[in-house]
Protein backbone atom coordinates (compact mmCIF):
# COMPACT_ATOMS: atom_id res chain seq x y z
CA UNK A 1 0.00 0.00 0.00
CA UNK A 2 1.12 3.49 -0.70
CA UNK A 3 0.41 6.34 1.71
CA UNK A 4 -0.86 9.53 0.16
CA UNK A 5 -0.34 13.05 1.48
CA UNK A 6 -3.83 13.31 2.95
CA UNK A 7 -3.65 9.99 4.78
CA UNK A 8 -5.64 7.86 2.37
CA UNK A 9 -4.20 4.61 1.14
CA UNK A 10 -4.31 3.05 -2.29
CA UNK A 11 -4.86 -0.71 -2.42
CA UNK A 12 -2.62 -2.62 -4.76
CA UNK A 13 -5.08 -4.83 -6.63
CA UNK A 14 -3.94 -7.71 -8.77
CA UNK A 15 -5.41 -6.96 -12.24
CA UNK A 16 -5.92 -10.65 -13.01
CA UNK A 17 -7.84 -11.15 -9.77
CA UNK A 18 -9.93 -8.06 -10.53
CA UNK A 19 -10.86 -9.46 -13.94
CA UNK A 20 -11.75 -12.85 -12.48
CA UNK A 21 -14.04 -11.19 -9.94
CA UNK A 22 -15.67 -9.16 -12.73
CA UNK A 23 -16.18 -12.35 -14.78
CA UNK A 24 -17.61 -14.22 -11.78
CA UNK A 25 -20.11 -11.46 -11.02
CA UNK A 26 -21.10 -11.41 -14.71
CA UNK A 27 -21.61 -15.19 -14.83
CA UNK A 28 -23.67 -15.17 -11.63
CA UNK A 29 -25.77 -12.08 -12.36
CA UNK A 30 -26.74 -12.44 -16.02
CA UNK A 31 -28.77 -15.66 -15.48
CA UNK A 32 -30.67 -13.91 -12.67
CA UNK A 33 -31.50 -11.00 -14.98
CA UNK A 34 -32.75 -13.42 -17.64
CA UNK A 35 -34.78 -15.35 -15.04
CA UNK A 36 -36.46 -12.13 -13.93
CA UNK A 37 -37.34 -11.42 -17.54
CA UNK A 38 -38.60 -14.98 -18.07
CA UNK A 39 -40.88 -14.98 -15.02
CA UNK A 40 -42.26 -11.49 -15.65
CA UNK A 41 -43.46 -9.82 -18.82
CA UNK A 42 -41.70 -11.33 -21.82
CA UNK A 43 -43.00 -8.77 -24.27
CA UNK A 44 -39.71 -6.90 -24.70
CA UNK A 45 -36.27 -8.53 -24.72
CA UNK A 46 -34.69 -6.02 -22.32
CA UNK A 47 -32.05 -8.36 -20.78
CA UNK A 48 -30.32 -8.41 -24.14
CA UNK A 49 -29.27 -4.78 -23.58
CA UNK A 50 -27.78 -5.48 -20.15
CA UNK A 51 -26.06 -8.64 -21.31
CA UNK A 52 -24.49 -7.07 -24.38
CA UNK A 53 -23.40 -3.86 -22.62
CA UNK A 54 -21.87 -5.78 -19.74
CA UNK A 55 -20.17 -8.18 -22.17
CA UNK A 56 -18.55 -5.23 -23.96
CA UNK A 57 -17.32 -3.90 -20.62
CA UNK A 58 -15.97 -7.33 -19.75
CA UNK A 59 -14.23 -7.52 -23.13
CA UNK A 60 -12.50 -4.18 -22.56
CA UNK A 61 -11.53 -5.26 -19.06
CA UNK A 62 -10.00 -8.44 -20.52
CA UNK A 63 -8.14 -6.47 -23.18
CA UNK A 64 -6.79 -4.04 -20.58
CA UNK A 65 -5.57 -6.78 -18.26
CA UNK A 66 -4.24 -9.43 -20.64
CA UNK A 67 -3.60 -7.84 -24.05
CA UNK A 68 -2.47 -4.27 -23.37
CA UNK A 69 -0.92 -4.89 -19.94
CA UNK A 70 2.61 -3.72 -20.86
CA UNK A 71 1.46 -0.50 -22.51
CA UNK A 72 0.14 1.05 -19.26
CA UNK A 73 3.55 2.03 -17.91
TrEMBL record:
Family annotation (InterPro entries): 2TM_dom
A Pfam family it matches: 2TM
Membrane-crossing segments per the record: 21-40, 46-68
Superkingdom, natural source: Bacteria
Domain 2TM: 12-68
Keywords: Membrane, Transmembrane, Transmembrane helix
Protein name: 2TM domain-containing protein
Source taxonomy: Bacteria, Pseudomonadati, Bacteroidota, Flavobacteriia, Flavobacteriales
